[in-house]
Please model this.
Amino acid sequence: MPDLQDPRVAVYLDFDNIVMSWYDRVHGRQAYSRDRQRIIEDPTEPEIAERLAKATVDVGAVIDYAASFGSLMLTRAYADWSSPVNAIYRSQLVARAVDLVQLFPAAAYAKNGADIRLAVDTVEDLYLMPDLTHVVIVAGDSDYVPLAQRCRRLGRYVIAMGVAGSTAKSLAAACDEFESYENLPGVEKPAPQRSRSRRLSSGPGDSGSGGRTRSRRSSDAEAKARAADRAAEEAAEAAEDADDEETGEDPREAATRLLQRALQLGDRGDSDWLHASAVKSHMRRMDSSFSEKAIGFKSFNDFLKGNAEIAELSESGHERLVRARD
Model:
């Protein structure tokens, strides 16, 4: 294992993934899929341009977060940079010394293209640069779980970053640490979305005089197609909502149970008092996605005080000790 006194960091961004995931986070579930064709045809259309602007990813926040772990040795972003949606980021990425890896949108290559290329490059880099200590994977797919596991087996500290609601729990569990994009400093959290996001109109040609010039048969066919699309989207959303109800869990309750387990597992020595920092580290090892700030607490001490029914906190000078309540 390289010397951790001088951390050296490699960053790999599945750029399409975070752009699409953040768009869905801002505008509602499945929003990018619904708007994809209009985005491809004309991203400067006023309504589409406004939606894209609201869902702009703060690349600087991502890179600054990665730099907090040590010196950035390399940063790569994988995407089809000829796409107008991605092209608008090129100048700021180049300004931050990000290596832009072009993925051509050929049908045979597009499926999992970024996943495979990113994984191959990462493993190659780890062997070519044994002094790398940290690997930051900016993505949300469960496809990256084997990559995260391999990086950890090779002795690297692995951090995953993704968009809340679009990141596989298995990816977060496979890493040493997980951070949600919207919790990064400087990133504005989107307003809460309704359960059903507003569907964009299909365009000005569907109503008014332009629409009346179409034949009735063509209009009926398009109306049926739109209805079928809408029904499919609603069915998919309903299925996802059902999955959320079955597996979903209040984040605060989950964090409280995690704290309780950490206190019980940590109480093995001569003293039942534990350092608060050690308890937090233990919780992060059990669940790398744990973050007290993500559930509304300013600090871990505040989180402990908020769970006074199960945790007793002792503060003496700069020392913070905690133990399980009897």
Notes: The beta strands are 8-14, 71-79, 99-102, 134-138, 157-162, 177-180, 274-275, 311-316, 319-324.
